[in-house]
Amino acid sequence: YEQRVLGVYFTSTGCTSCPSATKGLKDLNAVYPGKISIVAFHSHMGVVSDPMTIPETEAFNAALGGFDGLPRLFWNMRQGTTHLIGPSFIESYKEEIASYRPQCGVSVETESAGDGKYAVNIGITSNIPAVYRYLVFVVEDGIVADQTGDPDYVHDNVVRAVLTSAGGDKINDNLPLTVGVEAKASETFAPEAGWN
């Protein structure tokens, strides 16, 4: 299987260090195209109310050990944080890639489910008999919103909805997968008015 890393990124429109961290993540994605999936949770910061904050932000903060201060990045939902100021998180990405070998393959397809809804179909195939959970994030790119005084700042990878629990949902009735046999799950969502 080909390894792809999930970066769970916490940011805010009121965070002065976040734009440089976001640029660093975009640069990292350019160096390793197709190897990183970033999901950006926005949160309120001080007196700044972030319009992209969703209720699940706090659940994911808690699931990752709870923290204060932004920006923060967690690779593959692992506690242990990289504070994204400067390029040092590139080394943490390399460490994450080296820390384990992929043991499963994941397929994701989205299709219209009618009535303005979409189905997200997930498949997991493993080369070992193991128990798996899955996470589904609905993300949006191209949101123009103020960022510490820049009214034309473009926000990408913004988490608009989470279709599973913060700890992931069980697949295959929480039983170990049969080697080489795909286990399937599906989640449904309806985009809210105003989403791109």
Write a structural description.
The protein is of the alpha+beta class and 196 residues long. The protein contains three helices and twelve strands; from the N terminus they run βαβαβαβββββββββ. The chain has helices spanning 18-31, 56-63, 89-99; strands spanning 5-11, 36-42, 72-75, 104-114, 117-126, 133-134, 137-140, 143-144, 154-155, 158-162, 169-170, 183-189. The strands form five sheets. The chain has a three-stranded mixed β-sheet with strand order 2-1-3, sandwiched between helices. A three-stranded antiparallel β-sheet has the order 4-5-12, with no helix packed on it. A two-stranded antiparallel sheet has the order 6-11. The longest helix has 14 residues, at 18-31. The model has no long low-confidence stretch (mean pLDDT 92).
Q: Report Rg.
A: 17 Å
Range of helix content: 10-25%
- Characterize the overall form: globular
Counting helices, strands and paired strands, the structural category is alpha+beta
Question: How does the major sheet shape up?
Answer: 3 strands, mixed
DSSP strand count: 12
How many helix segments? 3
Give the amount of beta strand, in percent: 25-35%
Strand order of the largest sheet: 2-1-3
What average pLDDT do the residues reach?
Answer: 92
List keywords for this structure.
196 residues, alpha+beta, three-stranded mixed sheet, 3 helices, 12 strands, 32% strand
How is this fold's topology laid out?
Layout: E1 5-11, H1 18-31, E2 36-42, H2 56-63, E3 72-75, H3 89-99, E4 104-114, E5 117-126, E6 133-134, E7 137-140, E8 143-144, E9 154-155, E10 158-162, E11 169-170, E12 183-189
Parallel strand pairs: 1-2
Antiparallel strand pairs: 1-3, 4-5, 5-12, 6-11, 7-10, 8-9
